Amino acid sequence: MPPAEDRAERAERILDAASELLLRAGYRRTTIEDVAERADVGKGTVYLHWKNREELFLAVLLRESVRSIEDLVRAVEADPLAARLSRLTEIQYANVLGRPLLRAGYADNADTLGKLLPKLHAKLDPRHDEAFVEYLELLAGNDLLRADRPARELAVAYQAVLHGFLGGNPPPEPALIADTVAHAFEPVAVSTMRLREVAPRVVALFTESVALDRKQLERAY
Amino acid sequence: MPPAEDRAERAERILDAASELLLRAGYRRTTIEDVAERADVGKGTVYLHWKNREELFLAVLLRESVRSIEDLVRAVEADPLAARLSRLTEIQYANVLGRPLLRAGYADNADTLGKLLPKLHAKLDPRHDEAFVEYLELLAGNDLLRADRPARELAVAYQAVLHGFLGGNPPPEPALIADTVAHAFEPVAVSTMRLREVAPRVVALFTESVALDRKQLERAY
DNA sequence: GTTTGACCAGATTTCGTATTTAGTCATATG
DNA sequence: CATATGACTAAATACGAAATCTGGTCAAAC
Asked: How many distinct structural domains can be found in chain B?
């Protein structure tokens, strides 16, 4: 087996297997052997990529998270108006709802993620939160966000709103959170011109943030 | 023991005991005997008031909920401006945070409420939701609420926001949800005059709603 | 150099037993 | 005679020992 190239491919195959089983059986009931068998590798091979079970499954979730943000970046690249907070929220909200593993992460679905949840939040949240606050500050600096409160405070309120919607049963329509976020956090008038200006920087910001996550994933390849 | 009067008093005493123990030890670990002993009654006496363990503890939570709404009603009576959605939310949010049992109910604290949680939501939510939508419709009819979406839809969004804030860790300051709700759901200008007009009807609405809950509680007396 | 599965310690599940508890009701009490 | 009680029972829960399973390692195979 040629070394470098197929190694990454094998890692992906293992993640695919883990992802599939995680979704079907949940963290608690999915064993490393199950994953190895489904990925057509020996059990020991899994440990050549990740140092233990937990890291493997966290990688599954990290990959899913990276993919969702890559989707988001593509959406903003395709349409600069998607850089607007309300529109971005709508896209990302729908995106998360369409990815059962992320949805489980937000809805605190203990059955599928089990003891992985706390570890997950400890690992992913801080960096993403940071990037998100930067994004808000970028908006604020361009009159695309309410300026009467610090971005960091609006971020707290925003996270609460997002969590509230994602935790809904059933989660409300994406249009409703878009509308709510628009009123709650955007200024009365949002300049399309300004939006076109910041869009590339938004893309850069999220691309950079996601690059770090990518790096971490690739360590396993 | 004179019948009617002291019977209610005894019921309250039992609820006090149950409440105390529920908070300290959680539903799963609190036995009827513990409650009876702490309330200075025989075990059988508890069953003269409630038909089973679950009903007893649901009554504890119902009473807490009733009390919180009574607080709210008093606040609106004392200050008609508190009938405004953002202000009402701020008061009720702080109220819930200050009542550990209600807080546990919203934060899905499985440890203290355990298997009681699903039953609780099934029992309390429908009626309160109904009253809340009426309240929103009352506001909408007086230009005290955004009119570009049906009240029922705003109610869904509002519940998501409230749940998101209450589920926060730690829950954000009351002022932040007030601000968020004001922007998200209120019209740009809120007429103080109109507010004074509707306040009594808001009081009546919630009083009536809570009266039903009271009735249910008193059945046990 | 790379992959693997047999292996082992520790975790988890199982299953039978002991204990606890919800709910009842015959009796005690005032 | 109406009310309150705690002894009682069936059912649930907790416990513990034995059996099973699984994460992680590593010597052997390739």
From this structure: 1
pLDDT over 70 at A3, yes or no: no
Does some domain include residue B210?
A: yes
**Is residue B18 situated within a structural domain?**
no
**Which are the contacts of B79, defined by CB distance < 8 A and separation ≥ 6?**
none
pLDDT average, residue stretch B26-42:
97
Q: Alpha-carbon distance B179 to A157, whole Å?
A: 9
C1’ C7 / CA A6, Å = 29
- Is the separation of the CB atoms in B17 and B59 below 8 Å? no
**Res B5: pLDDT:** 53
Is residue A173 classed exposed, middle or buried when 0-12, 13-18 and 19+ CB atoms within 10 A define those classes?
middle
Where in the sequence is the domain holding B145, given as residue range(s)? 67-220
- B177/A167 CB distance under 8 A: no
Q: Which residue of B90, B129, B153, B183 to mutate against A (max A Cβ within 10 Å)?
A: B183
> Is B123 among the domain residues?
yes
The predicted structure's pLDDT at residue B23: 96
**DSSP class of A173:** P
Give the C-alpha separation, A192 to A144, whole Å: 9
The CATH number covering residue B75 comes to 1.10.357
